[in-house]
Amino acid sequence: MSENNDWLKAITVDCKSAKRFVRELDELHTRWGDSKWIFRGQNSDAEDWKLHPSAMRNTMITDFVNEHFEYWYDRNHLDDPNRSNWENKSDEAFQRHIEIALHVTVEVCLVWTFETLADEVGLPVPEVRSSSWEGVYGWSTHDTMKFLLNFHSGAFSPERISHYPGKTVYGFAQHHGIPTRLLDWTFKPLVAAFFAAYAKIPAGAQPDRVVVWAIKLDDLKTTSLDLVRHLYGNMAFPYAQAGVWLYDGKADDKYYEFGAYQPFENELAKIPDSGVYKLTLPYSKKDDLLKLLLRKGVFKSSLMPFLDNVAEDIMNKAIDWQEYQRKIIYHRVL
User: Fold this and answer.
1) Rounded to two decimals, what is the model's pTM?
2) Residue 174 in contact with residue 10, Cβ under 8 Å?
């Protein structure tokens, strides 16, 4: 065990075997005490381990903006009295304001389109919809952009998203691949371990380790990070994964200051000692880890309960179907 102070006070636990890795992550381990923790799993080639939400690192947002928006916006597109608020601000500040509004517009419209199309093709979506977000329903993308331009900042402040019912849909969309500013976490450490080992590896990447991050929930109050809870409802996957999301309520303010969205590590550096852990395992041991997790009931179709995943687990021999049959017969006899 070592402490890494290069960029944050994370206590690192390097494990050489999958068995030790699983023991260190056990929910009953004394490390966790009586506190509530959240966990996230990833591999070391995932954005150089940076904890960055998909909308803030995914080029889809930038590509979408460049393809669909012309930079014709200027101060004259602001409504009164917002126009006067910018009279004494620099061109650089207003340019960043435009960039943030563009970014948020794409996020809002992608989520709205996702939930609307999913509903139209007959798929279940959370009952509370994001399409009611500040009147976005029925607006064109440029209408949304005009609306957001007239915010000085804070279009997604912690108060707005944490207490906004439609946040469930943002998590729903995030979970299914739509880039948002939410970052996936879980209350279950072994679930995080599964996704650390199971995550797809980008082409050309050569991961050397899998890692599980752990954050003491009470210590988030020292940061601008906010836990987004939700109603699971018919969201079977997040329910099975005990999933939650983190969100940086100051993300747009930091964009104003630095000209780019900042990774969550900068906020985690504010957490006191023993509030952040990073547990690692050589990537070469990932198959051993997945086998141990299977024995503990943590596998793809248990975390993503979908019929195709059940079939895939059986046909790919993730599940020993003969052993499973014997177990079922044994239980029936009892």
Assistant:
1) 0.82
2) no
